[in-house]
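Continuing the series of single-chain predictions for the mutant panel. This is the parent chain; the variants come on the following pages.
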Amino acid sequence: MANTTHIALDLLTKAHPPETASAIFTEKILHKPLRLRPTSPDPNSQDARAHRRLQRLRKKEKSRRRQKPKPLSAKEKRISGIYEIPKESQKYEIYVPLYRMWLGYFWEILGMVKGKQNWMTAQAAGSKIASADFHGAKLTVVRSKCVSLVGLEGIVVRDTKFTFQIITKRSELKTIPKNHTIFRFQIPQPDAVADTLDLKPDTNISDDYMGANALVFEIHGCSFEHRATDRATKKFKQRNMAGV
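Parent structure:
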């Protein structure tokens, strides 16, 4: 049987003397340790690394808590339907107390007091009405570019930048654009309905309770094309309106 030598030893013999080649072969190849698993890391270095990682995670969590939550986009709001009024909530009777509350709010901003005949002028009430919140107001459409909207009356359940959403007495939800539309609303004297509100909280305030001295206002929707929150802080100036 032919004597065979390791191929690595043959190659080393060609490059080194026989003694050197044999030593290198024995040390580097023949007796080379075979590690079946990685060597264990230094416990001290491992603890330091874990500590740094923990500090980094704590710092990241603290920074995340300081950040304000990202607001929903308009598309996300439409998909979630957070501003949609459920069908079972589209009932006129549900919003009558809101209208009663709005009357008290409007008496307060106009300075109307019980036991006194209150009168208003356009100069005195104009800026107050322009910055008022109309959620809960009872509006009537008296003029509109869309003739099918004329005569609609209901309580405002949503005041957006370009529309009023109202609930009619038939419990129908209607969306009315503000542009090219004139709305009318009445504010009764506090004496005319105050006693009724105190004695019968659930009483529906109809035109019978308005009285002969009720204040009647007409507003041009194009002048109210702002969100209710924006109108509250906006300063309005008197100006001529084209086409009126």
